[in-house]
Amino acid sequence: MYHLYFGNETGDPGTVITFFPWPKQLKGRIGMGQVGVTSYSIPLGSLDFWKNRLSKFSIEFMSSIRFGERYVTFKDPDGLELELIERKEGPTNNWSFGGIKAENAIKGFAGATLLSAQPNKTADVLENVLGLTCIGDEEGFLRFRSVGLHGNVIDIKLTPSVRGLMGAGTVHHIAWRAKDEEDLLQWRKLLQEKGYYPTEIRDRQYFKAVYFHEEGGILFEIATDPPGFSVDESIVELGEKLMLPTWFESKREELEASLPAVKVRVLEGDK
């Protein structure tokens, strides 16, 4: 099974989302105990470009304003709920591809909306364990902010929802950054002191991570910045070939023959 990473040109923290493309995965249900909406940051003034682009590809969307920011909300083919938000902060993305030029390109994560079974408990872990700051509430959303430039705004939806069911079209977990492995060890120790049950440190090739469930049911990950995606190939070659852990290299031919072909292509509407 592929583990596909999507991010900016260098796979910087705060830009990377990952997918496991199971073609026959059962449909999930977005609800309590999950990330409800994944939000991406786009440059100021680019929202009309994205509205026109979504319309060109017959993707239905809704426009809204929350906390003074302009949003468009839509779903991917599996039902994953996505948002694009105009936001000034954060470095621009210099990558251009197909019909998307750098001045309109997604910069990285804006943040996420959490659907908690116990919103007050989730708010407590965000503020008093992870160190985010509560900056306000509006129309059933409680907003928190961190110090990062990407993915630094988290909303908790306060109105109840159905219980979430894991499957296609749902988010498995949300990740937070640790500076390095020493920092990760300190986070793990703090979580234990606060009464949580983090996993052992797990080596994910491009980072090391621990995982824990907060009391609202959402799975949180804390992952190190290093070593990053250039640990096993150069920056200019990222995404060009299948990368395998060292212990799978002996099976490369077998694995490449069994996996479906992946091709990054320009869409017909952009040609």
Largest sheet: 8 strands, mixed
What oligomerization state is this entry in?
Answer: single chain
Number of domain modules: 2
Number of DSSP helices?
4
- Under CATH at level 1, the class of the largest domain stands as Alpha Beta
Radius of gyration: 19 Å
Number of strands: 14
Decide which structural class fits the backbone: alpha+beta
Overall residue-averaged pLDDT value: 95
Helix content: 10-25%
Q: Tell me the β content.
A: 25-35%
Largest sheet strand order = 4-5-6-3-7-10-9-8
Say what the CATH topology of the largest domain is.
2,3-Dihydroxybiphenyl 1,2-Dioxygenase, domain 1
So, the CATH homologous superfamily of the largest domain? 2,3-Dihydroxybiphenyl 1,2-Dioxygenase, domain 1
User: Which regions are unreliable across 5 or more consecutive residues at pLDDT < 50?
Assistant: none
Please give a structural write-up.
The chain has about 270 residues and is an alpha+beta fold. The chain has helices at about 45-55, 120-130, 180-195, 250-260, and strands at about 5, 15-20, 35-40, 60-65, 70-75, 80-85, 110-115, 135-140, 140-145, 155, 175-180, 200-205, 210-215, 220-225. The strands form 3 sheets. The protein has an 8-stranded mixed beta sheet, covered by helices on one side. Strands 11-14-13-12 form a 4-stranded mixed beta sheet. Strands 1-2 form a two-stranded antiparallel ribbon. The model has no long low-confidence stretch (mean pLDDT about 95). A hairpin with a 5-residue loop joins strand 13 (about 210-215) and strand 14 (about 220-225). The protein folds into 2 domains: about 30-170, 2,3-Dihydroxybiphenyl 1,2-Dioxygenase, domain 1; about 175-270, 2,3-Dihydroxybiphenyl 1,2-Dioxygenase, domain 1 (Roll), CATH 3.10.180.10. The protein is built from 4 helices and 14 strands. The chain is globular, with a radius of gyration of 19 Å.
